[in-house]
Amino acid sequence: MKTHTAADPFAIMMDPAAVLRAVERSERLQRLQRRVCRPLDKPLIPRVVADALAWDQAIDDEPLDDACGE
């Protein structure tokens, strides 16, 4: 990598092969633990349709309150 490129993180992202070469040359970087994170692969909160339908039904079954003055 060129000196001015190494100082600019956006320029580094444009040349991922240069980043991989730098990692291969660096003993410290080779010791880093590597993993691939894909946070958008799975929903954060699992959706359970049956629970949502039961909750909706419970709300619908509640008696209306006339205390609002309508």
Structure description:
The mean pLDDT is 75. The protein has 70 residues and is an all-alpha fold. The termini are far apart. It has a domain at 1-33. It is rod-shaped and about 75 Å long. The chain has five helices and no strands.
What's a quick, concise take on this entry?
By secondary structure, the protein is an all-alpha fold. It has helices at residues 3-6, 9-13, 16-25, 27-30, 49-61.
Question: Which helices and strands appear, and what pairs or packs with what?
Answer:
Elements: H1 3-6, H2 9-13, H3 16-25, H4 27-30, H5 49-61
Strand-residue fraction? under 5%
In terms of per-residue confidence, which ranges show pLDDT below 50 for 5 or more consecutive residues? none
Instruction: Tell me roughly what share of residues is in helical segments.
Output: 40-55%
Q: Roughly how many Å is the radius of gyration?
A: 27 Å
Following the backbone from N to C, one meets helices and strands in this order, namely: HHHHH
Q: How many DSSP E strands?
A: 0
Q: What is the mean pLDDT? A: 75
Give a short account of the largest sheet.
none
Shape category: rod-shaped
Query: Helix tally?
Result: 5
Question: SS-based structural class?
Answer: mainly alpha
User: What is the straight-line distance between the termini?
Assistant: 72 Å
